[in-house]
Amino acid sequence: MEEPSNGSDTGHVPEKRKLDPQLYILSFSKLFKDLGTGMLAFLIPLYIVGLHSSVFADTPIVVKAGIVATVFGISNAFSQPLMGRLSDRLDRRKVFIVAGMLGFTVLSFIYANTGEFEYIVFFRFIQGITVGATVPAIVAMVTHLSTSHTRGKAIGIYSSLRGFGFGTGSLLGGIIVNYYDFSSAFYVCALLGLISTFSVSFFVNETRDTSVKGGYAKIAHVKDLQFPVLASAMFMMMVGIMIIFAFLPEYRTRLDASELSLSIAVSAYVLSRIVFQTPMGEISDRIGRKRMVAMGLLINVPIVVGLGYVESIVQLISLRAFQGIAMAAVETPVMALAVELTGGSGVGSKVSTITASQAAGMALGPLLGGLLAGYVSFRAPFYLCGALILLSFLLVLAVVRDPEPSND
After folding, report:
1. Could you list the residue ranges that cross the membrane (predicted)?
2. Lowest pLDDT segment from 136-140, 250-254, 370-374
3. In the chain, what is the straight-line distance between the N-terminal and C-terminal CA atoms, in Å?
4. CA–CA distance from 339 to each of 162, 210, 347, 404 (Å)?
5. d(CA 203, CA 26)
6. CA-wise closest residue to 342 among 75, 142, 131, 159
7. Where does residue 11 rank: exposed (0-12), middle (13-18), buried (19+ CB within 10 A)?
8. Which pLDDT score, from 0 to 100, does residue 194 have?
9. Which of 180, 174, 315 is nearest to 255 (CA)?
């Protein structure tokens, strides 16, 4: 019978900066599903171009691409707080991860046999719920397997491996479609999801919420504005990052780009984020998370605006790579700070407000980009996203503060 792991039961100071090996096992087990997630995010906006549609027959393709991405993000965002509260109440995480991965696997297989746009929209909505079941549970596990002294590093390692899977998945999807077809790519997604499902089932141990005496509980009030400000920062960043998925068909035409070159552009963001995610987490552990978050937000403003002016695939790839660096400076310290603000208790339900905001940004980004580009102008969404990110930068400066580390 497997014993729950808490990952931080040590009273020796040197041990506080050591990571539980289960963190690596969890991250590597989930890697295969992340590969599939990256593949689907890249494949579906291109796959729907050739699908029959009855309800949305006259809708611009950029809007249709935004719709299919948005329904996934909306269901993902709404399911996360619910699943987070339920997993905290049951004090169980592993069952949520396994169930969510199994749902991802089944739906990935179904895509290969779906020829209607409306069906794709429905299945992406359901898949968003299954993915939303896994996120708060995984964040809680990472928290249980780290301390306040290693939280930035732990989240950085987990996020780097997740990002590696997502970014490499986009590239893998482009290669498979380029040399085979969309159906083959969807079958590969299903196989990857199945591998992760079995890996988590057999190799990942359950964790328990034992940190009820947290070091940051004194500032973890419901009315504290830091949580909504951090959530808005993640939301704004994801809107600015995800609009590109609505523009993939448009970029293909404007830049005369192939599916493979576009997959490289999508992957450039994730792969550069991977390289900098863990270093940014470690640096934020030392110099302060607020400073790192503010820097990342500010850097992303001109990058987002610049995406509306690219004239070649090389420029698109370069800007996406710089955007990955900016996101690494925001995501890891935001998540680490949010975890500390919970006081170490009820992480799944409380931090899900941050992850749900991130998912909501993923949902709104493509739809906002598609609507503004389809009915206003191509560059309008890039200017709006840049302004929103600048606003979140100012809010972080005004509201967020770095607490002193606890002795856990």
Report:
1. 35-55, 95-113, 119-143, 155-179, 185-204, 225-248, 260-280, 292-310, 354-375, 381-400
2. 370-374
3. 28
4. 18, 14, 7, 13
5. 8
6. 142
7. exposed
8. 94
9. 315
Residue of 356 and 189 predicted with greater confidence:
189
- Nearest-CA neighbor of 87 among 383, 324, 352? 352
**What are the residues facing 52 on neighbouring strands?**
116
Tell me the β-bridge partners of 207: 5
Q: Considering the domain 20-399, what is its CATH architecture?
A: Up-down Bundle (1.20)
| pLDDT for the residue numbered 342 | 67
DSSP letters spanning 55-88: TTTTS-HHHHHHHHHHHHHHHHHHHHHHHHHHHH
Give the 3-state secondary structure of residue 343: coil
**pTM, to two decimals:** 0.68
Residue 219 DSSP label? G
Q: What does the DSSP 8-state code read for residue 399?
A: H
Instruction: Write down the pLDDT at residue 254.
Output: 85
Tell me how far CA of residue 359 lies from CA of 242, 317, 369, in angstroms. 10, 23, 16
Residue type, 302: P
- Residue 22: name the closest of 149, 158, 135 by CA: 158
77 vs 67: CA distance, rounded Å:
15
**How do residues 248-277 score in pLDDT, each as one tens digit?**
878 888 888 887 888 888 778 877 888 887
Determine the Cα–Cα distance for residues 257 and 46; give it in Å rounded to an integer: 13
Report angle CA 46, 57, 263 to the nearest 5 degrees.
5
